[in-house]
Specification:
The chain is an alpha/beta fold. It folds into three domains: about 160 residues, 2-Layer Sandwich (Chitobiase, domain 2); about 350 residues, TIM Barrel (Alpha-Beta Barrel); about 70 residues, Immunoglobulin-like (Sandwich), CATH 2.60.40. It is built from 18 helices and 25 strands. Strands 1-2-8-6-7-5-3-4 form an eight-stranded mixed β-sheet. Strands 9-10-13-14-15-16-17-18 form an eight-stranded parallel β-barrel, surrounded by four helices. A hairpin with a 4-residue loop joins strand 19 and strand 20. Helix 2 packs parallel to helix 3. The protein is globular. The chain starts with a helix and ends with a strand. Bound molecules: zinc ion. Zinc ion (ZN) binds next to helix 10.
Length: about 625
């Protein structure tokens, strides 16, 4: 990723140069923006000069609360690590040469920032606003501020400007499935740190599945003693039929959960736990078979991905179990909203089960879909009685939506639209746009994934408020979420590769109010990569590479098309096997090749290659 350091340095020089002029910036279209903040602030105006943070600069906080001291501490943490000094936190107002945090009564999460040569004034209304101002401030400093060790010879300067910023959506979420593969608490803390840097404020923690139960529940110890384990895991795609023969497990103790919840809250991230029901319950059923319809002799945690017919049977034993589980969940998670899953619940067992069939008749329900709705509604009533709200995947719409439920729309936009029209709050997470387990580049050269491709640009361009909604209905779209299902992500490195930078695109959609500008985003991202490098985030840089597609034509030939998303880049290519470079022919339009030829292509900008060479053979 060496190239990004070069680009970062260039951007930094450009940023410094920009201080010599004044320009009005609008969110939508300003390509001359010389600061590179992601997500783009709502309103940003450049001015002349820069403020330099040095050893004798002070931090002034007008409210000496633990919260504000902690936020000032985050700034000192970075400075002491990257710059080798930290700043005095003052309760009396310095005359100048200080960073002033001033409570100006702004709305939740909003902030203003005014940088002049002798001071930085940050206006906020709540801790989140002050924290988000700080995230912006970090991105106004040289990328080296994110370094884990002292950086020599850096001027810690912030360009003069003024910013007024506020979020578009209240819910800006990122999901992680820790069931298909397990990730330790240290990695989750890093994940939350990177979310917070992007002003993402909801961590949707997918804790239970067919393939493993990951949350300690004291009343049901088998859930983690046994339910965390699967005897082996499918190798390659789920159709391979080949298994690794190695037991796989992992879970979080309640102490670890409390620690993570506190850690996230200090970074203004609410953790939304997901306890799946009525489907995706095989790990729990393998521990407590009485929770099932009892049609099988033996239940075992799943060893491959997919949907399984062994689901919770809606009987009193099951409700007692789930209510106990949620009681412990409520103790651990202060979130007002809990996720109850609700997706992919096959009806086969319920159709065969005498209890389920008699329940359908007794309750006067039409079918198993209405039974599912009854199941979810019954759980919702319990959860509401404890002062919490439920959110569930689209399928909770089947058979009628529970009264206060929020919907997380993953199947497409349809469910989200229907729910918003019925005045239920909706988080948009359509899999075609926001599933991060999909390919982000050419499947021929990217690691195994679940579907797609869904490129960085596809994610960036997605508009989460469907046009069909009236302005009144649109208000029920409360936000967006990127979903990281970990079928093929068996290491932290692989998660980061799939999640970033596509989550940057979702974060900007969730935060930035005024429209989209791909070129602006992509160019800001180049500086941002330098930050992620310092933070040791192993992102994917496929958007710098040509995307080569060979379309079937005749037995002897194919038609080749190529594209590249990086702004200002053109594609240079060869057909004779040699390495392409700036002097090779430029791709201008689709062409025909014969089957013995190899296409090699590279994206070039300003006379220099910007990404890796891509090769396509037949
Ligand atoms: Zn049953």
């Amino acid at each position: 990723m060496r190239k990004f350091y070069i680009i970062s340095l260039f951007s930094l020089l450009a940023a410094l140069a920009s201080c010599s002029r004044t320009s009005e910036q609008s969110v939508v279209s300003d390509r001359t923006a010389q600061v590179n903040v992601i997500p783009q602030p709502h309103h940003l105006q450049m001015a002349e000069g820069a403020f330099r943070i040095a050893r004798d600069t002070k931090i002034f906080i007008d409210v000496q609360s633990d919260e504000m001291l902690r936020i000032a501490g985050f700034l000192n943490e970075r400075l002491s690590s990257a710059a080798g000094f930290s700043l005095e936190i003052s309760g009396t107002m310095p005359e100048s040469d200080a960073i002033y945090f001033m409570n100006a009564g702004l709305p939740a999460e909003s902030y203003g920032m005014n940088v002049t040569p002798d001071r930085i004034v940050i206006d906020y209304g709540d801790g989140a606003g002050a924290f988000y101002a700080l995230q912006t401030l970090f991105q106004l400093l040289p990328p080296e501020i994110f370094a884990g060790s002292r950086q020599k010879g850096i001027r810690w300067e912030v360009p003069c400007l003024s910013i007024e910023d506020e979020p578009r959506f209240a819910y800006r979420g990122m999901h992680l499935d820790v069931c298909l593969h397990f990730f330790d608490i240290d990695f989750l803390k890093k994940y939350i740190d990177i979310m917070a840097l992007h002003k993402v404020n909801r961590f949707h923690w997918h804790l239970t599945e067919d393939q493993g139960w990951r949350l300690e529940i004291r009343k049901y110890p088998l859930l983690t003693e046994k339910g965390q384990w699967r005897k082996e895991t499918v190798v390659g795609s789920l159709k391979s039929g080949i298994y690794d023969g190695t037991p796989y497990g992992g879970y979080y103790s309640q102490e670890q959960v409390k620690d993570l919840v506190r850690y996230a809250a200090e970074r203004y991230v609410t953790i939304i736990p997901e306890i799946e029901l009525p489907g995706h319950a095989l790990a729990a059923i393998s521990c407590y078979p009485e929770l099932s319809c009892g049609l099988e002799d033996h239940y075992e945690t799943a060893t491959k991905w997919g949907v399984f017919k062994q689901v919770y049977c809606p009987k009193e034993t099951t409700f007692e179990f789930l209510e106990d589980v949620f009681d412990e969940v409520f103790e651990l998670f202060p979130s007002e909203v809990v996720h109850i899953g609700g997706d992919e619940c096959p009806k086969a067992s319920w159709k065969e089960c005498p209890h389920c069939q008699s329940l359908i008749r007794k309750l006067g329900l039409k079918d198993e879909y209405e039974l599912q709705s009854w199941f979810v509604t019954r759980m919702e009533k319990y959860i509401n009685s404890k002062g919490r709200q439920i959110i569930g995947w689209d399928e909770i719409l089947q058979g009628g939506l529970a009264p206060n439920a929020k919907v997380m729309s993953w199947l497409g936009e349809e469910g989200g639209i229907r729910a918003a029209q019925q005045h239920h709050e909706v988080v948009m997470a359509p899999h075609q746009k926001y599933y991060l387990d999909y390919w982000q580049g050419d499947p021929d050269s990217e690691p195994l994934a679940m579907g797609g491709p869904t490129t960085l640009r596809t994610m960036y361009d997605y508009e989460p408020v469907p046009e069909i909604l009236t302005p009144e209905q649109s208000r029920y779209i409360i936000g967006v979420e990127g979903c990281v299902w970990t079928e093929y992500m068996d290491s932290p490195e692989r998660v980061e590769y799939m999640a970033w930078p596509r989550m940057c695109a979702i974060a900007e959609t969730g935060w930035t109010r005024a429209g989209k500008d791909w070129d602006s985003f992509a160019r800001r991202l180049e500086t941002h990569f330098g930050r992620l490098d310092y933070l040791d985030v192993g992102y994917c840089d496929a958007f710098f590479e040509p995307y080569i597609v060979c379309h079937e034509d005749t037995r002897y030939s194919k038609v080749v098309t190529m594209s590249v998303d990086a702004p200002g880049a053109e594609i240079h290519y060869t057909l004779d096997g040699s390495e392409p470079g700036p002097d090779s022919p430029v791709y201008a339009k689709p062409f025909v090749i014969n089957r013995s030829q190899t296409v090699k292509a590279v994206a070039v900008r300003d006379g220099r290659p910007i990404g890796d060479i891509k090769t396509k053979q037949f």
